[in-house]
Amino acid sequence: MTRALALCVVLSAARALAVFQCGDTQDTCQCGANNPYPCCDNGGNCTWYAWHNACCSLGVGLPSWGNAKEWTGHARANASYAVQSSPVVNSVSCRDIGTYGHVAFVSSLNGGGNITVREQNCFGGYGSRSYNYS
Q1: Quick one: which of 35, 105, 96 has its CA closest to 67?
Q2: Could you tell me the CA-to-CA distances from 33 to 25, 61, 84, 97, 113 in Å, in that order?
Q3: pTM higher than 0.90, yes or no?
Q4: Where would you tag: which of 38, 51, 81, 102 has the fewest CB atoms within 10 A of its CB?
Q5: Which is nearest to 45 in space by CA: 131, 117, 103, 132?
Q6: Cβ contacts of residue 41 below 8 Å, gap of 6+?
Q7: Above 80 in pLDDT, residue 3?
Q8: CA proximity to 129, closest of 50, 119, 121, 45
Q9: What is the 3-state secondary structure (H, E, C) of the chain?
Q10: pLDDT higher than threshold 90 for residue 6
């Protein structure tokens, strides 16, 4: 089951430029925070990339919430975030299955329960990609 983490945050922090690279993606987005997640040896990390997309697309510097499977619980405990049972465009999709879970940034809803996400993965070996899930 895919869950969406809708990002509902009021930002007041000063904007700062963070420059970092993970795989084929360079982080030059300005959201007032630096990405707290490492890049894995294969040039990908779902938490790094979901954080990066929230920063770039929404101007939100998310907190450091650990492994992907922990993001939903942390978001539920923080009144600044809404956790929903269905994906929302421009939000973080969270899966808490497996050892680490997985997060991705929702790009579009395609009908019939299909979504397109932007993602990376420490264990996927595909760098950054846009992918369709049902």
Answers
A1: 96
A2: 17, 5, 25, 28, 33
A3: no
A4: 38
A5: 103
A6: none
A7: no
A8: 119
A9: CCEEEEECCCCCCCCCECCEEECCEEECCECCCCCCCCCCCCCCCHHHHHHHHHHHHHCCCCCCCCCHHHHHHHHHCCCCEEEECCCCCCCEEEECCCCCCEEEEEEEECCCCCEEEEECCCCCCCCCEEEEEC
A10: no
Q: Which residue has the tokens 């299955």?
A: 97
| Amino acid code (one letter) for 30 | Q
Q: What is the per-residue pLDDT across 38-63, written as a single tens digit (0 to 9) for each?
A: 999 888 999 999 999 999 999 999 99
Residue with tokens 């490492």: 38
